[in-house]
Amino acid sequence: MWSEAEENYLKETYALQLDHDQVTTSMLAQRVGHSAPTVTGMLKRLSGRKWVTYEPYRGVTLTKTGKAAALDVIRRHRLLETLLTRVLGVPWDRVHEEAEKLEHALSGYLEGRIDEYLGHPERDPHGSPIPAADGSMEEPERVRLCDLPAGSSGLVVEVGDREPGMLARFDGMHLALGTEFRVLEVEPIDGLITIRVAGHRRVLGKSVASQIIVQKLEGGE
Fold first, then answer.
1. CATH assignment of 4-62, given 3.40.525.10, 3.40.50.720, 2.60.200.30, 1.10.10.10?
2. Inter-residue contact 158 to 176 (CB < 8 Å)
3. Are 122 and 130 in contact (CB under 8 A)?
4. CB-based contacts of 136: which residues, under 8 Å, 6+ apart?
5. CATH says 143-217 is which class?
6. Residue 71 has what pLDDT?
7. What pTM value is reported for the model?
8. Would you write out the chain's pLDDT as a tens digit for each of its 221 residues?
9. Which residues of the chain are in CATH 2.30.30.90 domains?
10. In the chain, which segments carry CATH 1.10.10.10?
11. DSSP states of the chain as a string?
12. Which residues contact 50 (CB under 8 A, 6 or more apart)?
């Protein structure tokens, strides 16, 4: 078994590995909100348990066992998000924080009952894939809105769930899951992206656009 802190480190390491070839101590420190020495201490602890491979000044990677543990936590978290949204109507800008509080206490039995009750959902309220009960999870290619050129069209399939203010802003811009949009302009210097969505022009900063995972649609220029 692992502690709540260990679960969080494994989960955040997995998330960082999706976007970075090398996960550094500083990246992880920023992600979990701990000091670099604290992070180093935890990584040594996880390395001793064979859950990560850690090399000072080079970074950290999950072992096969560590990845399985991380996906177990992610499964619980995303099932809880789906339950809270579908059953209690918790909005998508609040549900991540609530699920964070509950995920560590969820038993395997209750996890299975929730999954069955929800009809074995494949994605959570933010569009993120939910790992299967056997620990497997398909990770499709992650194309971000900020990577699309002007003239292209796309469909919103997933959004980052860590910033409530950003999610609330997406609501106001009608950037929900399944929304189609078209990239009108991309500023070459500051990276500002102008899109047309729901008949309106919207301007997004590059950091915000990087939190929107999309499916590129045919028919772009």
1. 1.10.10.10
2. no
3. yes
4. none
5. mainly beta
6. 96
7. 0.90
8. 678 899 999 999 999 998 888 899 999 999 999 998 999 999 999 999 999 999 888 889 999 999 999 999 999 999 999 999 999 999 999 999 999 999 999 999 999 999 999 999 999 999 999 999 998 988 777 899 999 999 999 999 999 988 889 999 898 888 999 999 999 999 988 889 999 999 999 999 999 999 999 999 986 54
9. 143-217
10. 4-62
11. ---HHHHHHHHHHHHHHTT-SSB-HHHHHHHHT--HHHHHHHHHHHHHTTSEEEETTTEEEE-HHHHHHHHHHHHHHHHHHHHHHHHH---TTTHHHHHHHHGGG--HHHHHHHHHHTT--SB-TTSPBPPPTTS-------EEGGGPPTT-EEEEEEE--S-HHHHHHHHHTT--TT-EEEEEEE-TTT--EEEEETTEEEEE-HHHHTTEEEEEETT--
12. 63, 65, 66
Q: Count of residues for the chain?
A: 221
Single out the residue of 112, 121, 111, 137 nearest to residue 82, CA to CA.
121
